[in-house]
From TrEMBL:
Region (Disordered) location: 80-99, 300-334
One annotated GO molecular function: enzyme activator activity
A GO cellular component entry from the record: nucleus
Gene Ontology BP annotations: DNA strand elongation involved in DNA replication; DNA synthesis involved in DNA repair
Name the UniProt record assigns to this protein: P-loop containing nucleoside triphosphate hydrolase protein
Family from the record: Belongs to the AAA ATPase family. RarA/MGS1/WRNIP1 subfamily.
Source organism (scientific name): Suillus placidus
InterPro entries documented for this protein: AAA+_ATPase, AAA_assoc_2, AAA_ATPase_RarA/MGS1/WRNIP1, ATPase_AAA_core, DNA_pol3_clamp-load_cplx_C, MgsA_C, P-loop_NTPase, Rad18_UBZ4
Keywords attached to this entry: ATP-binding, DNA damage, DNA repair, DNA replication, Hydrolase, Metal-binding, Nucleotide-binding, Zinc, Zinc-finger
Matches recorded under Pfam families: AAA, AAA_assoc_2, MgsA_C
UBZ4-type domain span: 21-49
Polar residues bias locations: 89-98, 316-334
Entry-linked CDD domains: AAA
Length: 602
C-alpha cells in the first residue's frame, strides 16, 4: 500500500460482528475468538468482553468450526464434569468426543452417577491406602534399611540412591518405601505397574524424565511395581537411561530377582531385601491406624460412648498384649488395650491378636481385616466376628512362585534327614493350599532314587505306585497315598552311592567327550566289524565258572572308582560339633550308637 493510502482498522463493535465470542476454558469468561490465545497467555487478565453483551454474526455467515474445548455451548451437566473434583479438562474433552461418536449428548446421562463429593471418593479408598505413612518416621519395620546406621539412609543423606530393586513378600512396604524415598529426595515421582503398562508407557516416562532433567535440572524416580512381569526384552528398555543417570528406577518384586530379572539390569541396580513384618510391627501399624481413625471420630460421639459404657476394671498391660507403638516411633500417647476401643467396642484384645496372627506379616492384610472389624456392628458377637475374619483370609501360596519351591525343598530335605514328622507337615502344608499332588509325587520318585537308592530297592516301586495312585484317584483321597509314601521314604535307610557315582562319572565324561570306546566292548554285528577288531578279546562272563577280566573303561579312566563300595566313607566328612548337636537335640542326649565304629574307620 502506498504512503498516501488510508489504512483501515475495524472498530471494536465491527470486530465483534466479524469474530464470534467464545468462553475461556479456564475462567469461563467471554473472549473474542481472535484474542483467545492472548487471553490465555495473560493468565485470563485481558481481552475480556462485557458479560451482558452477546456476540453478533451476520445471518448468512456460517460459524467457524471450533475445537471442542472452545465450544460455546456448555450445559449444566458439562459444567459439572469440568468442575468436578476428579475430572480434568482433558477427561471432559474425551467424554464429549466419545459422546459425539455414540450420537447422544452428555446431558442425557443420568446425573445420579455424578453426585459424589470428594469425601465420598475418599471413603471409597481402602483403609490400607488412606493410612499410608507420609514420612519415614511413620514407617514400620525394615530396620535394616530405615535405621539411622543403614546403608540406604546413608545414601539418602548424600542425595544419591541410584536405581533399586526392592524384593520382599506382599504387604511389607515396598510401594510405601519407594514413595517416601522420592518425597525425601524431592524428585518427580512416576508410578507404573508392569501388570497394566507396557514399554510405550515406560518410554513416555523416560522421555519426560530426560526433558525435566535437561530443562529444570530435576531428577525423576520411576517406581515400577511387579517388575518381574516384564519380559527380558522389555526390561532392556531401562538400561540406557539408568546407565546415563537420566532416571532412577525403583522396581518392586515378590519373585527372586536372580531368576526373573536380567543380569544386565541387576548389574545396574542395588537389590534390597525387605523382610516379612514381625508381629510387633503389625501391632504398631494397627495402633497407628486406630489412632488416626479415632482422630476422625467426632468428640461428641466419643463422649456419649464413654458415658454409656460402664467402667472396666483391668490389670496393668504387659508387653505381650500391648498395642502401643514403640516409643521411638511415636511421640503420641499409646492406645490402651485394657478395654474395647470407643466407639468401636468390637475391637477387643482377642480380635486384635487374631488380626496380627491372620495377617502373617502382611500390613495390607492387617489393615483390611481391621477395616472389616471397624465397619461391623459394635454389639456383634466376638466368636462370630473372629470366624468371619478367618474365612476372609486365604492362604498365601503361589504355585509358580518361590514358596512353591521352598516347600518342596523342605519336604525333600526332611525325608533325606529321616525326620518323618517334618516331612508330613510340609506335605500337609502344600496340599492344604492347593498344590498339585502330581508335582509332589514326581519329587518323591526322584527322592526314592537319589536318597534311598541302593539301600532299599523297594522305595522306587512304591514311589511310582504313589504317582500312579495320584493320577488315577486324585485329591482328596490321594493324600493318603502320598502320606504312605512320605512315611516310608522317611524311615527307609539312606544311600546316595548311585547318585554320587553318576555325578563323578558325569564329570569324567565331560573332560573329553571324544574318547573312543575300547575295542573289546564294542558291538560287532557284521563280519566287516569283526575283521576290524570290534569285540576282539571280549570275555563273555556267563561262559565262565570264575570271574574274568575285560577292559570296560577307556585307558584314561582305568582304575577309577565311580561307584564306591558298600561302607566306603572315604569321601565323607566328620563334624564332631554337629554330631554333638544331633545327640542333644535329635537323640534325646544319648550317644550315637555308631560313634565308636565310625571313629575306628576314620
Amino acid at each position: 500500500m502506498s504512503s498516501g493510502a488510508l489504512s483501515y482498522s475495524p472498530s471494536h463493535s465491527q470486530r465483534r460482528l466479524m469474530f464470534p465470542t467464545v468462553s475461556c476454558p479456564i475462567c469461563l469468561q467471554p473472549v473474542l475468538e481472535e484474542n483467545i490465545n492472548k487471553h490465555l497467555d495473560s493468565s485470563c487478565s485481558i481481552h475480556v468482553e462485557p458479560q451482558g453483551e452477546s456476540s453478533s454474526r451476520p445471518k448468512n455467515t456460517a460459524p467457524k468450526k471450533l475445537a471442542p474445548i472452545f465450544s460455546k455451548a456448555r450445559d449444566k451437566h458439562t459444567s459439572t464434569l469440568a468442575d468436578g473434583p476428579l475430572v480434568t479438562p482433558s477427561m471432559t474433552q474425551d467424554t464429549l468426543t466419545t459422546s459425539k461418536k455414540r450420537k447422544f449428548e452428555v446431558s442425557s446421562l443420568s446425573s445420579k452417577r455424578f453426585k459424589g463429593t470428594p469425601s465420598d471418593f475418599k471413603s471409597a479408598v481402602p483403609l490400607a491406602e488412606r493410612l499410608r505413612p507420609q514420612c519415614l518416621d511413620e514407617f514400620f519395620g525394615q530396620k535394616h534399611l530405615t535405621g539411622p546406621e543403614s546403608l540406604l539412609m546413608s545414601m539418602l543423606d548424600s542425595g544419591i540412591i541410584g536405581s533399586l530393586i526392592l524384593w520382599g513378600p506382599p504387604g511389607c512396604g515396598k510401594t510405601t518405601l519407594s514413595r517416601l524415598l522420592a518425597r525425601h529426595m524431592d524428585c518427580n515421582f512416576r508410578e507404573l505397574s508392569a501388570t497394566s503398562s507396557g514399554t510405550n508407557d515406560v518410554r513416555a516416562v523416560l522421555e519426560e524424565a530426560k526433558a525435566t532433567l535437561s530443562l529444570a535440572g530435576r531428577k525423576t524416580i520411576l517406581f515400577l511395581d511387579e517388575i518381574h512381569r516384564f519380559s527380558k526384552a522389555q526390561q532392556d528398555v531401562f538400561l540406557p537411561c539408568i546407565e546415563r543417570g537420566q532416571i532412577q528406577m525403583i522396581g518392586a518384586t515378590t519373585e527372586n530377582p536372580s531368576f526373573r530379572l536380567t543380569g544386565a539390569l541387576l548389574s545396574r541396580c542395588r537389590v534390597l531385601v525387605l523382610e516379612r513384618l514381625t508381629n510387633d510391627d503389625i501391632r504398631g501399624i494397627i495402633s497407628s491406624a486406630v489412632e488416626r481413625v479415632l482422630a476422625s471420630v467426632p468428640s461428641e460421639r466419643l463422649e456419649s460412648q464413654r458415658a454409656a459404657s460402664p467402667p472396666v476394671a483391668t490389670e496393668p498391660m504387659t508387653s505381650q498384649n500391648s498395642l502401643s507403638r514403640p516409643q521411638s516411633q511415636s511421640s503420641q500417647a499409646p492406645i490402651s488395650c485394657d478395654g474395647p476401643f470407643l466407639p468401636y467396642a468390637q475391637l477387643t484384645d482377642r480380635v486384635i491378636s487374631s488380626i496380627v496372627s491372620l495377617s502373617t506379616g502382611d500390613a495390607r492384610t492387617a489393615l483390611s481385616l481391621l477395616e472389616l472389624v471397624l465397619t461391623s456392628k459394635p454389639d456383634r458377637d466376638e466368636h462370630t466376628l473372629l470366624a468371619s475374619l478367618r474365612q476372609s483370609v486365604s492362604a498365601s501360596y503361589d504355585r509358580v512362585g518361590e514358596s512353591h519351591y521352598d516347600m518342596i525343598s523342605a519336604l525333600h530335605k526332611s525325608i533325606r534327614g529321616s525326620h518323618g514328622s517334618a516331612a508330613m507337615y510340609w506335605l500337609a502344608r502344600m496340599l492344604t493350599v492347593g498344590e498339585d499332588p502330581l508335582y509332589i509325587a514326581r519329587r518323591l520318585v526322584v527322592c526314592a532314587s537319589e536318597d534311598i537308592g541302593l539301600a532299599d530297592t523297594h522305595a522306587l516301586p512304591l514311589a511310582m505306585a504313589a504317582l500312579q495312585a495320584c493320577q488315577v484317584i486324585g485329591m482328596p483321597e490321594c493324600r493318603i497315598n502320598l502320606a504312605h509314601c512320605v512315611g516310608y521314604l522317611s524311615e527307609a535307610p539312606k544311600c546316595t552311592r548311585a547318585y554320587e557315582a553318576y555325578n563323578r562319572a558325569e564329570v569324567a565324561a565331560k573332560l573329553d567327550p571324544t574318547i573312543p570306546v575300547p575295542m573289546a566292548v564294542r558291538n560287532a554285528p557284521t563280519a566287516l566289524m569283526k575283521e576290524l577288531g570290534y569285540s576282539e578279546g571280549y570275555n563273555y562272563n556267563p561262559s565262565f565258572r570264575h570271574p574274568v577280566h575285560n577292559d570296560y573303561l577307556p585307558t584314561a579312566f582305568r582304575g577309577d572308582k565311580f561307584l564306591k563300595e558298600v561302607g566306603d566313607l572315604s569321601d565323607k566328612d566328620w563334624n564332631e560339633q554337629e554330631l554333638l548337636r544331633w545327640e542333644q537335640e535329635g537323640n534325646g542326649g544319648r550317644l550315637w550308637e555308631g560313634r565308636s565304629s565310625a571313629q575306628h574307620r576314620r
